Amino acid sequence: MARKLLLTLAVVVLAVIGAGVYWFVIRDDSVEKKTTDCDPEPCEVTLDSVDGTWSVVPAESEGTLVITEEIGSVLDHQAEGRTGDITGTLEVDGDTVTAADLAIDLTGLEFVDQPGGGFDVANRANAMGNTGLQTSQFPEATFTLTEPLVLDGDLTEGDTATADATGDLTLHGVTRSITFPVEATADGEQVRVSPADFIPIVLADHDITVQTPPMVARVADEGGFDFLLVLERAA
To answer: By C-alpha distance, which of 146, 149, 199, 209 is closest to 174?
Structure first.
């Protein structure tokens, strides 16, 4: 009888693990990196010059916050929060971005991942108001360029220009200097800018303490930011 009970429990455990592996490992739920690719391709460039002031188009731009959650101590899942609440301007002179000031409204983050298993992703955004990012106290993340950014490529010729952006990132009220590679392309009269890879963010560097939500064993101590900026020449 005891042996039969153990076998039954083993079958149940394997079934649960199997379901978990499907939801969190086999299922392709990795967060897709944004790009400056045009849709449809190829880009149709109508710019004669990129000199001047460029403003973010919030309705077409998007920022993404990504962090890994550990479910049941063994299975990882990527939490993905998005927002289109981005504002800012860039100043361009020839092939050089001389100034950039950007702001993301973190209170507008909406989590779009689907971990399954009854986990309600809406709870993350609610909890972040007073824990973790504490968006009720620190509603914005900002980035200010601190060094000129020289573009390697001619946007008016249809090139994908690349450069390293160095500036001050303020998150959770703490400012840190960061450097990350970016890519830019022109599409019609607009310019599209995105980092070449996810920008790593060490939570402790910004005094962020994450409280583990129910059903989650652990939250990673490092997350990442991604964004797509669609810019148009300021009036």
So the answer is: 209
Distance between CA atoms of 139 and 83, rounded to whole angstroms?
12
Task: Please indicate, yes or no, if residue 166 is contained in any of the structural domains.
Answer: yes
Position 149 in a domain: yes
Q: Cis bond leading into 40, ω under 30°?
A: yes
Separation between Cα atoms, residue 210 and residue 218, nearest integer Å: 9
* DSSP one-letter code for 184: E
Report the C-alpha gap between 153 and 162 in whole angstroms.
Answer: 7
> Which amino acid, 4?
K
What is the pTM assigned to this prediction? Answer: 0.76
Q: What is the tally of structural domains in the chain?
A: 1
Nearest to 56 by CA among 106, 108, 101: 101
User: How far apart are alpha carbons 115 and 214 in whole angstroms?
Assistant: 13
Nearest in space to 109 (alpha carbons), one of 77, 78, 141? 141
Query: Which residues contact residue 118 at a Cβ distance below 8 angstroms, ignoring those fewer than 6 apart?
Result: 215
pLDDT 10s digits, 117-147: 555 555 666 666 666 778 889 999 999 999 9
Residue 87 located in a structural domain: yes
Domain assignment present for 222: yes
CA distance 121 to 112: 8
Residue 158: domain span = 31-233
Rounded Cα distance between 186 and 233, Å, is: 12
CATH number, domain of 205, equals: 2.40.128.110
DSSP state, 212? P
